[in-house]
Design brief:
Order of helices and strands: EEHEEEEEEEE
Largest sheet: 8 strands, antiparallel
Structural class: mainly beta
CATH superfamily of the largest domain: Aminomethyltransferase beta-barrel domains
Oligomer: single chain
Helix content: 10-25%
Distance between the termini: 71 Å
CATH architecture of the largest domain: Beta Barrel
Number of helices: 1
Length: 160
């Protein structure tokens, strides 16, 4: 009996093209399974860290929205506990009436800087809290269950 007949079927039953598609499909399924189910290089132990988040040009409402002891969340991930809140009037460089530029203090908007402590920082190809990548300069929307605001990470200090 011939292995491949005149119609291109293997052992007269399976077409070679069908076999090739079946093999590619199986390789893809195995590859995806290894990608999503495969074990990591090792167990990553969460570390303690302190970080600051700056909320810029927020309304007066936000000056009292965050308090020391608040637990912050982003997309249901626990991002840590607020240990310090600093509120100051927002300042920007504006053109003054005499044509020069100067620093102007706004009376209706504020900058809020939160210092936050977390025990959930993981270090593996970057810094992560839950599924959120956490780097200096990244933006995050943090909520305490009462208010949510978009801020920028300004500093991260990892505790040894």
């Amino acid at each position: 009996m011939k292995r491949i007949n005149e119609n291109g079927r293997l052992f007269g039953k399976l077409h070679l093209f069908d076999l090739l598609i079946l093999i590619l499909l199986l390789v893809g399924i195995v590859g995806m399974a290894l990608r999503f189910v495969g074990s990591d290089d090792g167990v990553i132990t969460p570390r303690s860290a302190t970080y600051t988040v700056e909320f810029v040009e927020k309304d007066e409402y936000f000056t009292t929205a965050y308090a020391i002891g608040d637990t912050l969340y982003e997309k249901s991930e626990n991002m840590g506990t607020v240990t310090n809140v600093e509120v100051r009037p927002h300042q920007s460089v504006e053109v003054l009436p005499d044509g020069t530029s100067g620093l102007v203090e706004h009376v209706t908007t504020y900058d809020i800087i939160l210092t936050v402590e977390t025990d959930n920082l993981r270090e593996h190809d970057g810094y992560f809290i839950g599924s959120q990548e956490f780097l200096n300069g990244t933006g995050h929307t943090l909520s305490n269950g009462f208010a949510a605001a978009g801020g920028t990470v300004r500093a991260i200090t990892i505790k040894e």
